[in-house]
Amino acid sequence: MSDLSNLLLLLALGAIVGLWLKLSSARERAVQEARQQCQQHGLQLLDETVGLRGVRLRRVNGLRVIERCYGFEVSIDGHDREPGRLWMIGNALSSLSLPTIELLPHQEVAARGTLPSPSGNVVPLRPRPRDRLN
């Protein structure tokens, strides 16, 4: 009886280690994908890391697959932190959510005194003013 319980314990431990290794490699792939997407969109990936935010089942071509959501933070101008998310199925990127920014020339902002109203459902972001400690 003790041989059977030792075997089951060893199998459970092996399954836990295998799952941990698989999730670690998936996280490393998510970091690579986040870094690549930030570089492509002109953003800075902060902390060079991602964190698992959620797991869900999704139907793709009639099959149910597991989709993982990773959260991370990016900087638009080097003085802010904005959230970003990416969803992955296996090693493939299935969806991406990054902050957007609309920069205006200083003359246009100064002439109007305010930012222009956004068109449609897009809300423009602007860089936050830097706090200067002297």
Automatic annotation (TrEMBL):
InterPro entries: DUF3301 (IPR021732). Residues 112-134 are annotated as: Disordered. This is DUF3301 domain-containing protein.
